[in-house]
User: Fold Acetyl-coenzyme A synthetase N-terminal domain-containing protein from marine metagenome.
Amino acid sequence: MAKEKIYEVPESMKTNALINAKEYEDIYRKSIKDPKKFWASEAKKYLSWQTGWVEVSRSDFTKGKASWFQGAKINAAVNCIDRHLIDKADKPAIIWESN
Assistant:
């Protein structure tokens, strides 16, 4: 078997990254240790929900089935537009550039 080639991350990318390697590893470790707790936390942190969920996830990979946030309701318009109006209402949402 061929040896796996590892590419170094350029310094310019490291400097502009939102998280570093250690922070990534910490996040990854949490997601593996307790996936349901991790994804519930992320969903609450980054999305506005109309109603909460009964169950974070349910899956049966032998049947190729997976479902997330059972029983929850979410409004795409609220999450895509409305919740950003507090600090971005005076900025363009879409900028069109024709060919």
About this structure: The mean pLDDT is 93.
